[in-house]
Specification:
The protein has 5 helices and 31 strands. It is mainly beta and 647 residues long. The protein has a single domain, classed as Maltoporin, Chain A, CATH 2.40.170. It has a 22-stranded antiparallel beta barrel. A 4-stranded mixed β-sheet has the order 1-5-6-4. The protein has a two-stranded antiparallel sheet with strand order 2-3. The longest helix has 10 residues. The chain starts with a helix and ends with a strand.
């Protein structure tokens, strides 16, 4: 009920805005960023659903810091936390506003090209080179994107091919034995056709920084390739096809000749292969609106090694969606049908095989009540082949009087259980009992946002909350076995995000603070507990000087507060820590040289205590949870060469 009241209070804001004179004096100075994830085609400032946007300029800044994957780019976004789930291999997922990573849907141009549930290594296998924009929806987005978007959506929007030839090559090396080589090119092919291609080679040496014989940084060799073909018609029709391929060999665990506490070697490794294809097309139809078609297929093959255990499996995801969008006067609408199939096949443990088919219908309506107020409602009905039918509604309200912006949103969604909670992805299936009598997880989320922007100053405060019913938890079944259960009560999360930004000349200073309070039923006993690895307090301060055509210099500081720890024999709570960074980039025409130093204070979790257990956990893990940095101070130096110029 409290979540519902949040939305009602915002919807009851004064409706007399019809009499108010237009007050958006600064709109001409605001970049016209059009949002794709909400399907409405509105600018970000006109969208009732809150969408955080990372622009191409911000992406380029992060490429100079971590060109091999998108993990850093996302971890430095307010309200997101990239949580390491497998210290031995470096696997990570994205927690949105304190909700576990399995609830976050990662998309590329609205397509699930990384599967219905991105694996814990998925973030580390996505290079940012060809990204033009990143859009983040926090809170239940199941109304448009189905059960995998219970906690939010991260939509990676590709760079569109330039009509003029454009090329870029980047070479990077780190002090921890990492190297990256990426290339991007795009050009027109004919009157209506253009193309782009991005490729990358990435590697990392295995590193044992605390000399305990167990890798703190997993070694890997990875290649990626993604060509795209674009078409544009004279009548406004558009389409593009994308193909993707990736191969990686990742290795961690005990080093050669070393053992864990029981005297045996425990090697961790994973070989991955992923191939995908996607299509996005739209066409105007006179008198009806615009037809949209999205379709994709992805297959992923893995060979895992957990000590003496080897597991081979395959994940396949098929997706298609057809929708029609239109509008009249102050009202826009969207309706469509979709179907997604997720198939998992394990050659080693076939008892965990599953095949989910989820057809759905969805609709969205947005109406401008006045120049200052817009209401958006959406709903989706999914018919899950194993977990029944679920209705996922969402209601959002935007109110913009003058320099102020108020948004409120409330939504509901569901998530279909799979074996792949964080602990199982880290340790494998060998100690997990077959799934039995599990129910789908459901949740309600709500947010209330107030923002102010005028001239060089911008401020934003967002209150958020979530209640999850029947959350899946890992519980001990024996000293050498675990099982998945539905929580005996609600999992609750609430908190606030605050952001301040000030621009003066060529300098931008941004400060943020996030408070998160979360609790869940204790899976191994009575009562409740804080959700592990969820800091109550997190803050950042970032200052960047940038001059177009010359370069940029930046300073970053990130504070992470104490976190509750689970099954850690050395401590029950983590220590707070501060991470500082410096970066600089200098342009010489088409050539750029960049240098970046992360974690200047050399903060490393292994300095506070062991990372290894004295006995193997019931789920199979030898490593403790990673609550802080495991790699310490890292510097990288690189060069980037650009040919041509994008519009």
């Amino acid at each position: 009920m409290s979540l519902l009241l949040t939305a009602i209070c915002c919807a009851a804001l004064p409706a007399a805005a019809q009499e108010r004179e237009p007050a958006h004096d600064d709109e001409a100075e605001v970049e016209a960023v059009v949002i794709e994830s909400t399907r409405s085609g509105r600018r970000v400032q006109d969208e009732p659903i809150r969408v955080d946007v990372l622009s191409r300029e911000e992406i380029e800044e992060k490429i100079a810091m971590r060109p091999g994957n998108i993990a850093m780019m996302l971890s430095e976004t307010s309200g997101l936390r990239v949580q390491v789930t497998s210290p031995g291999l470096g696997g990570s997922n994205i927690r949105v506003q304190g909700m576990r990573g399995r609830y976050t849907q990662v998309l590329t141009d609205g397509l699930p090209l990384y599967g219905g549930q991105a694996s814990s290594l998925g973030l580390l296998q996505i290079p940012p080179t060809d990204l033009g924009q990143v859009e983040i929806i926090k809170g239940a987005a199941s109304a448009l994107y189905g059960p995998s978007a219970l906690g939010g959506v991260i939509n990676l929007i590709a760079r569109r091919a330039s009509p003029e030839p454009v090329g870029e090559m980047l070479l990077n090396a780190t002090t921890r034995g990492g190297q990256d080589l990426t290339g991007y090119a795009s050009s027109a092919l004919a009157k209506r056709w253009s193309q782009s291609i991005v490729m990358g080679l990435h590697r990392q040496d295995t590193q044992d920084l605390d000399k305990d014989g167990y890798a703190d940084l997993a070694g890997f060799d990875r290649w990626t390739l993604r060509p795209r073909l674009f078409w544009a018609g004279d009548d406004g029709s558009r389409a593009f096809v994308t193909l993707g391929a990736m191969g990686e060999q990742r290795r961690g665990g005990t080093l050669a000749g070393r053992t864990v506490a029981d005297g045996t070697a425990y090697r961790e490794a994973q070989d991955s292969r992923r191939f995908d294809v996607g299509l996005v097309a739209e066409r105007p139809v006179e008198g009806l609106g615009r037809f949209h078609l999205r379709a994709s297929a992805v297959t992923q093959d893995h060979t895992h090694q957990f000590g003496a255990d080897r597991e081979k499996d395959r994940h396949d995801t098929m997706f298609s969606e057809l929708s029609l969008a239109g509008g009249q006067g102050a009202t826009t609408w969207l309706g469509g049908v979709a179907v997604q199939s997720d198939v998992y096949r394990s050659k080693t443990f076939p008892a965990f095989n599953y095949s989910y088919d989820v057809p759905a219908v969805f609709a969205q309506v947005e109406h401008e009540l006045s120049d200052d107020m817009t209401v958006a409602g959406s709903a989706r009905l999914d018919a899950h082949s194993d977990y029944g039918s679920h209705l996922s509604p969402r209601l959002s309200v935007l109110y913009r009087p003058g320099a102020w912006t108020f948004r409120s949103s409330i939504g509901r969604g569901f998530y279909a259980p799979t074996p792949f909670v964080e602990e199982i992805e880290a340790a494998g299936l060998s100690r997990l009992q077959p799934l039995s009598q599990l129910k789908a997880e459901t949740a309600e989320t709500a947010s209330l946002e107030a923002g102010y922007a005028r001239g060089p100053f911008e401020a934003n405060l967002n209150l958020f909350g979530a209640r999850i019913h029947d959350a899946i938890q890992l519980a001990e079944a024996s000293a050498t076995g675990v099982r998945l259960i539905n929580a005996r009560g609600q999992t609750r999360t609430h908190g606030a995000e605050a952001l301040l930004r000030y621009r003066v000349g060529e300098v931008t200073v941004t400060g943020s603070y996030v408070y998160t309070a979360s609790s869940e039923p204790d899976p191994n006993g009575p009562g409740r507990r804080e959700i592990p690895l969820t800091p109550k307090h997190a803050a950042s301060l970032v200052a960047v000087w940038e001059r177009e055509g010359v370069g940029r210099v930046g300073f970053e500081s990130y504070f992470t507060g104490r976190q509750s720890l689970d099954d850690n024999p050395y401590r029950t709570r983590s220590k707070p820590y501060l991470v500082l960074g410096l970066m600089g980039e200098r342009r010489f025409g088409n050539l750029s040289v960049f240098v970046n130093v992360e974690n200047l204070l050399n903060v490393r979790q292994s300095k506070t205590g062991p990372m290894l257990r004295q006995r193997r956990a019931s789920d199979g893990r030898w490593t403790l949870d990673a609550w802080g940095p495991t790699d310490g101070r890292v510097a990288n130096l690189g060069v980037r060469v650009r040919l041509g110029s994008e519009p």
